[in-house]
Amino acid sequence: MFKQPDICIIGGGAIGKTAALALARAGLQVSLVTPAQLVQNQASTDQWDQRVFALNHVAHGLLSSLRVWEAMDATRIAPVDAMAVHGDGASAGHIGFDAYAARTDALAWIVEDHNLNRALDSALKFANGLHITVGTAAQLHTDDHHAVVTLDDGSRISTSLVIGADGAHSWVRSQADIGIDYRAYNQRAIVANFSCEKPNHGVASQWFLGEPGIVALLPLPGSRVSLVWSAPDKLAETILQEPPEQLSQRLAQLPGQTLGAFTMLPPTTPQAIPLRLIRAGAMVANRVALVGDAAHVVHPLAGQGMNLGFGDIDALLDAVAKRDQASDCGDARTLARYARHRKEEVLLMQLTTDGLQRLFDTELAPLKVLRNLGMSALGKLPFLKRQLITHALGRSVKRSTERAT
Fold first, then answer.
1. By the number of CB atoms within 10 A of the CB, which of 39, 208, 224, 397 ranks highest?
2. Over the stretch 220-244, which tens digit does the pLDDT of each residue have?
3. In a domain, 366, yes or no
4. CA–CA distance, 334 with 9 (Å, rounded to integer)
């Protein structure tokens, strides 16, 4: 079997599916290569997914333009109306953000992984120009004129552009000989969901606790929250071995929390995800483009990992749409435009998240005082706060919103 689409996408997660849907809707012939376990539509569940995303306006605009946002279960999506960030120790700083001051309807939206993927799977079934291949890529060959992906069953896909949307351990990235900078944080993200004694009022709260790590409580519909605790490996091991009630008590003791008592929702076993920083040496190579975690993995303290992936898709769509009519999708100038557009935003997010993690990971007393003073001072500088909010909402809001309309 030999296929010749305009673009071949490797990877069956939400980023790969969104890229496939968006490019097919743009009138291109697209082949999506995905492992079998990722193409099955997940069954509905009464449980709350432990994996959630804080999607910004770029993601919202892109998914709305593809009619995916409206296909999700709206009763399971929680808007973030405000954020409260707390420092650590006796001199703990504090900074707050709210949608009203940012002149927007919401700062972000908390969406479950299975809610997003169910909507994407449904949309993919009706996308013209899209072919889904269940299998595993085994070989990649590129030259000046095309790229050929050979699958494990011997079939081949000849295309002008291969998109690597295959995650942090990207096969496409390694085949394109793109190196990475890697740093393990020696932390794990403990994720679980809880019902609360009091309503969350749409507030996402975060505590920089120093040695115990960083705790984030994200609002879910009703009096529920989703926990993301970036905990040092030793503490993470302790938390995982404790009964659910002990973790609930830990959260109830967070300074300044206003949610009262916590009760863990099923499944009552938290997940633990190792945290690391991965920086690809380049986002493009000859007839290859990387998107999502294949291109960059950042610390979850800012909740921007998935948003960076949607920003990649947004920028790649724009670069492909603006290519010379005589050029194909994998033209070197098109890929250079994509890489150039993403360079600043991705680098800024990498430096910000890594810098904050390093700053709050130290227990040196002078630095603890300085970081809390800096946080409090920032809260009193409206211009800088607006700049932070604007960046968090997403720089490509205008382009995504234009497509949505």
1. 208
2. 999 999 999 999 999 999 999 999 9
3. yes
4. 17
